[in-house]
Amino acid sequence: MMASNELTKVIVETELGAVTLGIDEVHAPISAGAFLAYVDKGLLNGTTIYRIVNQINQAPEIVHRIEVIQWGHTFGADDPLPFPPIPHEPTSVTGLRHQRGTISMARREVGTAGHAYFFCVGGDLESLDFGGGRNPDRQGFAAFGQVIDGWDVIDAIYNSAEPIEYMKSPLKVTSVRRA
């Protein structure tokens, strides 16, 4: 990851406070560009933090356990997306890794990312990198930045996890803007 002064700064305002992100447009241009397109169009304002995965609320049979906070848009199968999904940008190409503080693209299949994101809260989460076993296709997830300020807010969000991963009472993301 680049030094924080070389990253594009984005401020995520939540109902629990603000988090400053550093977006790596050099190493992850596709994923960073897609995220910044949503930011610049104001499409992440009013979204939610809707999934918090911790050690307690994961199914016991899960082999590759993670600790993440997922947020962004949730679209139904028939809802039009504001931008098309992006090509997958694996960590084997970018050189970025899923560690505490990484922001990454959420996805189902390769080539479906673009409107939902997650923060890595746990330590090194190699199972989310290319070749890792969290996703059966072993393509990993597309890391594109890091938390550079607001860890107290990240911790407060993480500590508001519910007994299930997908929250019955999602937390509000009030605005997302470039710093």
From TrEMBL:
Signal peptide start and end residues: none
Gene3D superfamilies documented for this protein: Cyclophilin-like (2.40.100.10)
Coiled-coil ranges per UniProt: none
Recorded superkingdom: Bacteria
Single GO term (MF): peptidyl-prolyl cis-trans isomerase activity
PROSITE patterns: CSA_PPIASE_2
Domain PPIase cyclophilin-type residue range list: 6-179
EC number of the protein: 5.2.1.8
Keyword Isomerase in record: yes
InterPro entries cross-referenced by the UniProt entry: Cyclophilin-like_dom_sf (IPR029000), Cyclophilin-type_PPIase_dom (IPR002130), E_coli_cyclophilin_A-like (IPR044665)
SUPFAM superfamilies (UniProt xref): Cyclophilin-like
UniProt keyword list: Isomerase, Rotamase
Enzyme class: isomerase
PANTHER family: PEPTIDYL-PROLYL CIS-TRANS ISOMERASE CYP38, CHLOROPLASTIC
Name listed for the protein in its UniProt record: peptidylprolyl isomerase
Species this protein is from: Paradevosia shaoguanensis
